[in-house]
Write a structure and sequence with these properties.
- With 224 residues, the chain is mainly α.
- It has one domain.
- It has helices spanning 6-17, 21-46, 55-90, 95-104, 107-127, 129-138, 142-148, 154-164, 169-177, 180-188, 194-215.
- Helix 3 (55-90) packs across helix 4.
- The longest helix has 36 residues, at 55-90.
- It is globular and about 40 Å long.
């Protein structure tokens, strides 16, 4: 099955979201709310600190934020992206419940897999920003693989993503780039429009992932 065009991915995403925007936006709102709480827990105290005089407290807050991101946001990212994938693949519009269930199921495996995912990108970024950005696309399918293939180790999940994305990293970048106009329009709404844009982008990414699976010889879900 050949990879589709950006417009075909976007049309497929809109087809799945039609009539299902409300649950998709609600799940996105919850995801963003949790992220803002975690970021706010670090940002609000830190802006009042004299970093030189309160270095220990500042480092403690930074470390606490990193742990919250690891133990909460990373697994929740797996839950959110896969809930949108299920909406795309099965038209399962119970997005919020699916996000919660997927986040908590096999939690340790997903936590470890996403920790390695972040670590690999961070190590590539140490070489320079561009290699880090490139490898973030190489490892982009890791959240899906962790959920769909719990038998694969956390390390191998990101490796599998890298193998699937060979020759397709720019394709995914180009797909994301095609949403740039919608991104700027969403910013003009004080960011509120991102609640609609995020599931739109992730549904298109799920369609992209399904084509990758078909190309790699995995059975794609029915209803394509």
């Amino acid at each position: 099955m050949p990879m589709r065009t950006n417009q075909e991915y976007k049309n497929a995403a809109l087809d799945r979201l039609r009539g299902n925007w409300k649950p998709a936006v609600l799940a996105t709102l919850i995801y963003v709310f949790v992220a803002l709480i975690i970021i706010g827990a670090f940002e609000f105290p830190s802006i009042t600190l004299d970093v030189e005089q309160n270095l220990g407290l500042f480092c403690g807050l930074a470390g606490g934020m990193a742990l919250l991101e690891l133990f909460v946001l990373y697994p929740l990212m797996v839950g959110y992206e896969n809930a949108i994938r299920l909406l795309y693949e099965r038209r399962d519009n119970d997005v919020t419940r699916n996000m919660k269930d997927i986040t908590l199921a096999n939690y340790g495996h997903k936590l470890w897999g996403m920790f390695l995912y972040g670590l690999k990108i961070a190590l590539w970024t140490l070489l320079f920003y561009i290699p880090g950005i490139v490898m973030s696309f190489a490892y982009a399918m890791t959240p899906y693989i962790l959920e769909e293939h719990p038998e694969i180790s956390g390390w191998d999940a990101s490796t599998r993503s890298r193998e699937m994305m060979k020759g397709h990293k720019f394709d995914l970048f180009y797909l994301y780039l095609s949403f740039i106009g919608w991104f700027f329009l969403a910013i003009l709404t004080a960011g509120i429009g991102l609640l609609w844009l995020s599931p739109y982008v992730d549904a298109a990414k799920a369609a992209f992932y399904n084509d990758l699976k078909a190309e790699c010889g995995e059975l794609a879900p029915t209803g394509e």
